[in-house]
Design a protein that fits this description.
This protein is of the alpha/beta class. The chain has 18 helices and 21 strands. It binds alpha-D-glucopyranose.
Length: 576
């Protein structure tokens, strides 16, 4: 089912809508993991460019690339050694430019990483700072102290590896501050020279043509005594300055905030539409898994009730999985225990405060569950992000260290190294997944292209249906508290279009009765088949649902409703 790219993203030459990110569907990919064009065992930009048709054919409209800058790769590239260059293993600036052009030619936007909370300790700024005299302007680019008890109210994020947010530097003869690994010193945003340098990095990539920047770990930019050093007002001042620089010089670009916080603490990252355009909805994600396993919509409904409204031009980014552990920071202790017991029975599946597994293994490869979760991803309010490989139901390998088990090579074919690389298997940056039921011999793109019922082909259809209705990206979110709590029901409304989404979280058949009095006389039309359902009348609207089933309807007037398929055609009957 190879569809020409011109028809899939037909409006590629249309002028960009400044709110393009509201209608976007994002595919998250690591250059390293996608396709190795030069046979050295690591994916590269040439390989990614080769595979852009695959990505465009998925129907997604944007790519989010994990860090690809020079780096010792001790934190998979989030430890940046140079901001304005490409890691030589992935190619060079020319390769990046070609990739960007090829992505844009297919109507795909490109979002890259702006990791500014910290650098690698190998960054020249840090090397200069540590050997500069104490108190000098050069030293002042990072956060130093003689007292490792300073800011003691600050939590540790990488609990499995770090004991303190301070580490001793024998060259500087001071402690330096780091919210993540000890090889990632935090930049000092109280120093205006740092902000200026960071804005210059931002300019560099935006001038190159990237469409958006994910702002990594931004709640932690500023530290203050007596606080938890997260979400401080001064951090918001920094972001407003960055946004002002963005707006002054560029159009139609975006900031995506990585702020793993509770909704009321994330909202300020949108500012008055003068900070970030988008922010991840971290607390929603684990609650989708909770609701599924508990067969109870309550966790989803409650977190949405606790989510304040956001400015009209802002947007949530929602996701099921990503390159990190499935974070359990934004749940209660009880909920965390529940998640660990249900989804990470083997302690090796756990890391830091989360679970290092992919979507398909989390759901025990249950096709219905995978479809339902993806349907939720595509219909809940926000812009959905699909993590590479999850469209195939790829597995993970939690025997690999850190979070590497969810970062294994993309599985293209059942050939050598899953079609990812021509290198010797031993030379690959990571082993491919080999064991059943997730081994590349069975789970790969080529195999799924051959079977009409494959997950890949279903995902394309899902993305396609979503894209036909702007209410998914831009509409209201109106939960309907139907009697049966195993069924999650909500409406999405935008400019005269009303969508009704009904999701059976249970593994058993269910029925639900909906109060649709407001729509008396209307007809629900299934978005997938264009099949009209019975007209909405006086009585509560009854729907029966198969295990883990879901419906997406648009509600239209009786006149607008298409004819029902399968009902006898009166004309045909007369003739016979
Ligand atoms: C972000 C990234 C994560 C990284 C961390 C430190 O949370 O998503 O992968 O380890 O920042 O840079």
């Amino acid at each position: 089912m190879t569809v020409p790219i011109t028809t899939r993203n037909a409006n590629r030459n249309a002028p960009t809508d400044p709110l393009w990110y509201k209608d976007a569907i994002i595919y998250q990919v690591h250059v390293k993991a996608f396709r190795d064009a030069n046979g050295d065992g690591y994916g590269d930009f040439q390989g990614l460019t080769e595979k852009l048709d695959y990505i465009a054919n998925l129907g997604v409209t944007a790519l989010w690339l994990l860090p690809f800058y020079p780096s010792p790769l001790k934190d998979d590239g989030y430890d940046i050694q140079l901001y304005e260059a490409i890691h030589p293993t992935y190619g060079n600036i020319e390769d990046f430019r070609e990739f960007l052009e090829a992505a844009h030619a297919r109507g795909l936007k490109v979002i890259t990483e702006l990791v500014i909370n910290h650098t690698s300790d190998q960054h020249p700024w840090f090397q200069r700072a540590r050997s500069a005299p104490k108190g000098s302007p050069e030293r002042d680019w990072y956060v130093w102290s003689d007292d490792p008890k300073k800011y003691s109210g600050t939590r540790i994020i990488f609990t499995d590896t770090e004991k303190s947010n301070w580490s001793w530097d024998p060259v500087a003869e001071q402690f330096y501050w780091h919210r993540f690994f000890s090889h990632q010193p935090d930049l000092n945003f109280d120093n205006p020279a740092v902000l200026e340098a960071v804005i210059n990095v931002m300019r560099f990539w935006l001038k190159m043509g990237v469409d958006g920047l994910r702002l990594d770990a931004i709640p932690y930019l500023i530290e203050r005594d007596g606080t938890n050093c997260e979400n401080l007002p001064e951090t918001h001042v920094v972001l407003k300055k960055m946004r002002a620089a963005l707006d002054a010089e560029f159009t139609n670009r975006l900031f995506l905030a990585e702020a793993n916080q509770w909704p009321p603490d994330v909202i300020p990252y949108f500012g008055n539409s003068d900070e970030c355009h988008m922010a991840f909805h971290f607390p929603l994600m684990p609650r989708m898994y909770m609701a599924l396993r508990r067969e109870d919509r309550t966790p989803i409904v409650e977190i949405m009730q606790r989510t304040p409204p956001i400015p009209a031009d802002c947007q949530w980014a929602i996701f099921l999985r990503n390159h990190d552990e499935l974070t359990l920071e934004m749940v209660t202790d009880e909920e965390r225990d529940y998640m660990y017991n249900e989804y990470a029975t083997d302690p090796r599946m756990r890391i830091n405060v989360g679970i290092r597994r992919r979507l398909a293994p989390l759901l025990d490869k249950g096709r219905r569950q995978i479809e339902l979760m993806n349907a939720l991803l595509m219909s809940m309010p926000g812009t959905p992000i699909v993590y590479y490989g999850d469209e195939l139901g790829m597995g993970d390998n939690y025997y690999l260290g850190d979070r590497n088990g969810v970062r294994t090579p993309m599985q293209w074919t059942d050939g050598k190294n899953a079609g990812f690389s021509e290198a010797d298997s031993a030379a690959l940056y990571s082993p491919v997944i080999v064991d059943p039921p997730y081994g590349f011999q069975g789970i790969n793109v080529a195999a799924q292209e051959r079977v009409k019922t494959s997950l890949l082909r279903w995902m394309r259809r899902l993305v396609g249906v979503r894209k036909e209705h702007r209410a998914f990206g831009r509409g209201t979110f109106e939960p309907i508290q139907a009697g049966n709590k195993r069924v999650l029901v909500f409406m999405r409304r935008f400019q005269g279009e009303t969508l009704l989404c009904v999701n059976n979280l249970s593994r058993y058949a269910q029925f639900v009765e909906l109060d649709l009095a407001e729509f008396h006389g209307c007809v629900p039309v299934d978005l997938w088949s264009n099949q009209p359902f019975p007209q909405i009348g006086e009585l509560p609207y009854l729907l029966t649902m198969g295990p883990h089933g879901f419906y997406w309807f648009r509600l239209v007037s009786a006149e607008e409703a298409p004819p029902a398929a399968g009902t006898p055609d009166p004309g045909a009957r007369k003739k016979s």
